[in-house]
Recover the amino acids of this structure.
């Protein structure tokens, strides 16, 4: 497991996700939220908190929009790559990430896409440049 650099970011996101899965197993999760979605939220929120830049819960959920409907492993890989894109852009696999973001957004309903599109503009989500 890498500690620094782009691979370190990927590993940290994967570890944070798996830690949240273990912590949430058997716990009450809000209706309509899967264990995968809650762990994705936890991983991204933890990353923000570690960087001393906490964000409101609603904005984290909105930023996760392109990733949570993908199959779990693909969604996790794409989210980890997205964090690399945000923090070390030149080391990110932009082609893979663009494909995943577009596919993830296509899995949302039209109303969800409209809502998350507006929130993306307000929140400055960097995935919006990949669509």
């Amino acid at each position: 497991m890498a500690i620094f650099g782009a691979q370190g970011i990927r590993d940290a996101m994967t570890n944070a996700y798996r830690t949240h899965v273990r912590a949430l197993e058997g716990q009450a999760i809000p209706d309509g939220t899967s264990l995968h979605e809650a762990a994705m939220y936890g991983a991204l929120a933890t990353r923000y908190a570690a960087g001393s830049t906490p964000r409101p819960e609603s904005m984290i959920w909105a930023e996760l929009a392109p990733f949570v409907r993908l199959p779990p492993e693909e969604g996790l890989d794409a989210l980890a790559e997205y964090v690399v894109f945000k923090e070390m852009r030149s080391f990110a696999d932009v082609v893979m990430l663009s494909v995943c973001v577009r596919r993830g957004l296509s899995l949302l309903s039209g109303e969800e896409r409209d809502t998350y599109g507006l929130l993306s503009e307000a929140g400055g989500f960097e995935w919006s440049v990949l669509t």
User: Anything to note?
Assistant: The chain has one domain: 5-130. The chain has a mean pLDDT of 91. The helical segments are 5-24, 35-50, 57-63, 65-68, 72-87, 94-106, 110-123. The CA atoms of residues 66 and 104 lie 4 Å apart.
